[in-house]
TrEMBL record:
This is Murinoglobulin. The lineage of its organism: Eukaryota, Metazoa, Chordata, Craniata, Vertebrata. One of its GO terms (molecular function) is endopeptidase inhibitor activity. Residues 140-165 are annotated as: Disordered. The gene is Mug3-ps. Residues 149-165 have a biased composition (Basic and acidic residues). The keyword rRNA-binding does not apply. The keyword tRNA-binding does not apply. Pfam families: A2M, A2M_BRD. It comes from Mus musculus (Mouse).
Amino acid sequence: VDLSFSSSQSLPSSQTRLQVTASPQSLCGLRAVDQSVLLLKPEAELSPSWIYNLPGMQHNKFIPSSRLSEDREDCILYRLWMSENRYSIRQGREKDVYSYVEDMGLTAFTNLKIKHPTSCFYYAPPVEFDHEFRDGLSGRLQMGSSERPPPEEPQRKDPPTKDPLTETIRKYFPETWVWDIVTVNSTGVAEVEMTVPDTITEWKAGALCLSNDTGLGLSSVVPLQAFQPFFVEVSLPYSVVRGEAFMLKATVMNYLPTSMRMSVQLEASPDFTAVPVGDDQDSYCLSANGRHTSSWLVTPKSLGNVNFSVSAEAQQSSEPCGSEVATVPETGRKDTVVKVLIVEA
């Protein structure tokens, strides 16, 4: 199973494509989560070794005993069988109840005759079902591959590039981005178009596919970096009491190797009053790979969910930033973050 994004890095709220390649007509589960989710519990990540260690994948004996004693009990004399004729002899590759239960990894305790005996006059070592089962599956469960190579895709012409985004409005910050099931077409390819969430982070995607022909397949983890030249992070409490004053902070981070002249604004609202803290609210110079925090003393006036919208914009300016000329990025010149605060009585 192979999984890939159309690009390894995208702007928040932009469009991207997730493509999965597997055996034709496979049913594939897709997942993409914030990398912080996997860091919290890395042992829960799905892997081939984790699947092989499942109880159903382990070969179990019905009753713990040596193979020699089982074989001796299963072998009956041909003359005794002819006289009593109480058992049926396995015909060719015919499977008995014992074999079906054993293949499922179950343990049975019964006094019923559920296993075919073998006749001693043509005795041969019994077939080891565990090797056949595991060898057949080991070829199917390989990281990033499948038994049947995917057919070659016809060359696809990408749509014309759109104008670079000048502003991103970020208000969707999930931990789980993709949790879906898709069916691979007859050529072995499935493609899903989706919108990148607003979180500035690295997303980790994976695919688990099932096929009637090739069995179980697991892809390797594929990353997607949601990134823009600069962005603003808003810090505020989860909830406050109406009339209670608190400090709202907006930190702008610059990941460019050049300086920018920034303007940070908190959108006015009748639901609260905001008083700037400091004297650099109109504009300031943000150094290369630097950060700057602006603050407001906020007092809510309304109950319920109150929206706070903070915008950071790179401005064209003839004024230098120190000894450097202030630059404006080609994409993502303005970043707006909307956060919700619960105001209680």
